[in-house]
Amino acid sequence: MVAGIKRRLTTAAYGAAWAGVRKVPEPAGRWVFARIADAAWRRRGKGVTRLEANLRRVLGPNASEARLRAVSRAGMRSYMRYFYEFFRLPELGEERILTSVRDLGTYRILETLREGRGVVAALPHMGNYDHAGAYIALSGAPFTTVAERLEPASLYDRFVATREELGMEVLPLDKGAGTVGALARRLRAGGLVCLLADRDLGSNGVEVEFFGEPARVPAGPAALALQTGAALLPASLWYEGRNWVIRVQDEIPVPDSGTRTEKVQAMMQALTRVFEQEIAAHPQDWHMLQRVFTADLDPARAPRPESARPDEDAATGESDADADADADADADADADADPEPEPEIDGETGEDTPAPAEDRVTAGGSGPVP
Fold it and tell me: How would DSSP label each residue in 88-130?
């Protein structure tokens, strides 16, 4: 009964957000979502504490508690900015979607596709990948991705419909649904598949070193590339003021020797090294509010024997909107400034800056409504 009530409340909250953000002026909407982020950050629910546990690895052992809290606060604002922009994205129009992106390398995707070769674009949970997806699709590269099913089904269907409206093909990440086979067919036909690749949803992933610690990541991106001959290209996303940045880097090469399992592990390790560099440069835009490091995982998710064959568990990660929103964003929005303002992270430079008296939104957000 409690679970049913929670699902109904979640559906109602998302429905209100979908309807509300399109009616409210953009500066006001951004300000409200930043206040929601601040309220969740102050509550320090499980999503925030997990985010901070992950950020400790990124910032290193010498980072102060104040530095960690500053980055996690900016991270929650970045996370809620993602939701605000997702709800509003269909209203932006093609011109703004195309002109608000600083493009650092998507030509690598487009040139590979023009050669008739498939591409697996693998990325971490950074920035706004729905906006990036819309940008890629409008640039002439429609693509396929996957989404973990949500409860209730009506909420999942609405997320899928929004993404399909933006030019994406969304397949369910279900056992027995043939999702991985469908992805392989798209790649063999010279198509583009985009997969989140910094968190293993099941227990069939591979173990890599991530910020100096063991972590579990999905085998699917490398295994699909190896199986189909597609190029595995790392991508990363972050915010830059009101705009977005997309960086696509050089192909992850297939090792010359080793078993299939060893090749998949080596490719995922190389991919993770790229993720480390990008996350370290923009830690506030890494939206990882779930467990990712092996030391933090539940015993039930302990590693099982490795398999380099992609299956329904190992294929990929899920999107922020598809996760359970561990940010505790259902906290009441509190627009009051903190009694003692915390240091914040400037969205442009990533440096510590003192919080202004008016509690200005950082990490690319807007200031309070006059």
Answer: HGGGT-HHHHHHTEEEESTHHHHHHHHTT--EEEEE-SBS-HH
**What residue ranges do the domains of the chain occupy?**
1-291
Cβ atoms of residues 124 and 197 within 8 Å: yes
What pTM value is reported for the model?
A: 0.79
Instruction: Show the tokens assigned to 71.
Output: 């980055």
247 closest CA partner among 327, 135, 367, 351: 135
| Residue 190 phi, psi dihedral angles, 5° rounding | 85, 25
Mean pLDDT lowest for which of 91-95, 221-225, 249-253? Answer: 91-95
Q: In a 10 Å sphere around its CB, with 0-12 CB exposed, 13-18 middle and 19+ buried, how is residue 175 labelled?
A: exposed
Q: In 33-61, which positions are buried (b, 16+ CB within 10 angstroms) versus exposed (e)?
A: bbbbbbbbbebebebbebbbbbbbbbbee
DSSP for 59-73, please give it.
Answer: H-TT--HHHHHHHHH
Helices and strands (DSSP H and E) totals, the chain:
11, 11
Q: Which two tokens stand for residue 316?
A: 């990929």
pLDDT one-digit tens code per residue, 162-199: 888 888 999 987 765 589 999 999 999 999 999 999 99
Residue 78 pLDDT exceeds 90: yes
